[in-house]
Amino acid sequence: MQENKNLVQNCLDIFQTQGLRVTMDDIAQELSMSKRTLYEKFENKEELVLQCIELLFQEEHKRMEQDLIKNANIIEELFPMLNFDVFNRVRKLKDFIEGIKKHYPEVFEKVVALHLDEIRSTIGGVISKGIKQGFFREDINVDIIKIFFFDLQTARHNKELFERFPVAEIFQNTLLCFVRGISTVKGVELIETVLSRDYPYYKDEHFCKK
User: Fold this and answer.
1) Predicted TM-score of the model (pTM)
2) pLDDT tens digits along 166-194
3) Fewer CB atoms inside 10 Å of the end CB: C or N, the chain?
């Protein structure tokens, strides 16, 4: 079991560094194994991609839970990308997901959509926690908010927006405005306190420039 997981992880590393267009021949050569052995493990490339994305989401879910435990307040929980390492990780994850959606739409529908629901559920849990703590308004519908909040995050990858504006500006004018809108006075004060800190991701070239 562990041996197969290690193999999938190695294949995932290859996909993430060389792209999804890499062939089974290339993968076998990279791993110093015969193509026949590779096909004994995976029926075809689609199955390999499927197992890779499953593993990726499993590991990402664990890391998300760890990030939530580490964060000091509800705003940093809701915006884990305020952490530079998390920002880079999520950026790479979303780029990879876009590749899956483009080249393997059936895999995307089978796996990615399911895990995106899990991410939305996690966001909903954070929102509910914020309501109990008095940072978010009690009259909001959490089921609506968690879906819309996630959609706003993915708007950062809207081609037209990304080509015209720096990502930091998109972030400030979408997610931050939205969260301020669902926040209480106590919540807005916390947002301003959190954003007054020196977050290194605002200095990242990908995040700050067009």
Assistant:
1) 0.65
2) 767 777 788 889 999 999 999 999 998 88
3) N
